[in-house]
């Protein structure tokens, strides 16, 4: 086994830069561990509500002791969740690199607290997943709590929750059907 002094003496400038960059990235990710854990939990809840929605659409009751329950669950939905998690991880790493190595930015103050650009990116991913959970619940129950509480939001934001999408054209206004969720 080589001594630490020998290892330090043999380091090149490139190795030192690479080690310090990796160290900075790992430090940033470790500082975000709470919000990353929250994102992981939210993704699991979204997967479970997605399974519930799939079973509801197929007309199968949720009973893990029945063979029909397990036959109704297919790998495509779970694979989509895995792909989504992988894409979120890549996005978080890109934002951490952008935040800590490229911009070297300080915290951004929002609502009286300071957040890094990386934390804001993870929070947005959490919000997307939470909305997906409510969409899955709406498919099963017919009610979406977020849409019911939209009256608390500013009027411009409320328009996002409308069922009709309006496109203004120079010639005429065209009304499209509501968006469908194809997860």
Q: What does this entry look like structurally?
A:
By secondary structure, this protein is mainly alpha-helical. The protein is built from eight helices and four strands; from the N terminus they run αααααββαααββ. The strands form two sheets. It has a two-stranded antiparallel ribbon. Strands 3-4 form a two-stranded antiparallel ribbon. The radius of gyration is 23 Å and the shape is flat. It starts with a helix and ends in a 7-residue tail after the last strand. The mean pLDDT is 77.
Summarize the structure.
The chain has helices spanning 4-9, 13-31, 33-58, 67-72, 75-103, 117-141, 145-148, 155-158, and strands spanning 108-110, 113-115, 165-168, 173-176.
Please give the largest β-sheet.
2 strands, antiparallel
Return residue spans where pLDDT drops below 50 for at least 5 consecutive residues. none
State the helicity in percent bands: 55-70%
In N-to-C order, the SSE pattern is: HHHHHEEHHHEE
What order do the strands of the largest sheet run in, or round the barrel if closed?
Answer: 1-2
How would you sum up the global shape?
flat
Class inferred from helices and paired strands: mainly alpha
- Tell me how many strands there are: 4
The number of distinct helices, counting runs of at least 4 residues, comes to: 8
C-alpha termini separation: 53 Å
**How much β-strand is present in the residues?**
5-15%
- What do the pLDDT scores average to? 77
Q: Calculate Rg over CA atoms.
A: 23 Å
